[in-house]
Amino acid sequence: MRVASVIKGLKNSQKIFLAINGVAMYTTVGATDKLAYATQRSAVYVLLSEMALEKATGMSRTVRVYDHKMEQVAVEVSISKC
Hints:
The chain is an alpha+beta fold. It is 21% helix and 38% strand. It has one helix and four strands.
């Protein structure tokens, strides 16, 4: 059975280079669903969605999201397609 894509416009098997707050890793779009922290997941989804809309090969941005205590957290995210 087919798995729905995590981000519309990007394949789950698309390999990406991802840097979150200075920690870099190679992963796939589908594997970003398994990131440990919800704030980081949300920031990565925002940037991946923008990449899909603009058909960009890479983006870097500081995304501000709210954590479970409703405090604003800044997450630095950099993504590029491999």
